[in-house]
C-alpha cells in the first residue's frame, strides 16, 4: 500500500464512512486541528526527559485519535462498529480535574497571567495548550452546523486547562517560577 493516493490532488479529501469534502471544510479543519494537537503532545513527550506525566499524555493522544475518528465521520451510524473502539468516557474529564487539583496543591497560587516560558517541557506544554484551544474553536465551529458530541468540546476545554497546569508544574518542579505578565 502506497502512502500517496493522488485522490486529494484536487483539494478534496475522503471522509471515514464515505463522502468527499473540500480540504477547507469545517469538518476537516476540526479533525486536522485535533491531529495537530496530537503531534504537539508528541513533542511534549519527546522533550520530557523524566517521563513527565507520560502515561497521561499518551492516553490523551489515544483519546485524540478517537475524537478525530468521530470528527472525520459524517455518518457515524454507517461505521458504528469501527467507531466502537473510539469511545470516549466523560470520566476522562474528571481524571483531568483530579490531576489539576493535585497539582494545584503543589503549585503556588496563581495571581497573574503567565507567559508561556520556562523549561523545554513547559514551553512545549504551553504550545500544545494553544493548539488545543484552536482545536476546541474548530470543533465548536463544526458543532454549529453538524452533530458533534458535546463531550468533545468539554474534553478539549478541560484538556487545555490541564496542559496549562502541567506547564506550570513542569517549571515548578525544575525550580523555576512562573514568568508573569
Explain how this protein is built.
The protein is mainly alpha-helical. The chain has a single domain (12-173), classed as Hypothetical Protein Ta1238, Chain: A (Up-down Bundle), CATH 1.20.1200. It is built from six helices and two strands. The N and C termini lie far apart (51 Å).
**Structural class by secondary-structure content:** mainly alpha
Categorize the overall geometry. elongated
CATH class: Mainly Alpha
Q: For the record, what is the CATH homologous superfamily label?
A: Cobalamin adenosyltransferase-like
* Computed Rg: 18 Å
The counted number of beta strands is 2
- Number of H- or I-type helical stretches: 6
Question: Which bin fits the share of residues in helices?
Answer: 55-70%
Major beta sheet, specifics?
2 strands, antiparallel
Reading the helices and strands in chain order gives: EEHHHHHH
- Proportion of residues in β-strands: under 5%
Low-confidence stretches: none
Report the mean per-residue pLDDT as an integer: 90
Q: How many structural domains?
A: 1
Overview features:
181 residues, mainly alpha, Hypothetical Protein Ta1238, Chain: A, two-stranded antiparallel ribbon, 6 helices, 3% strand
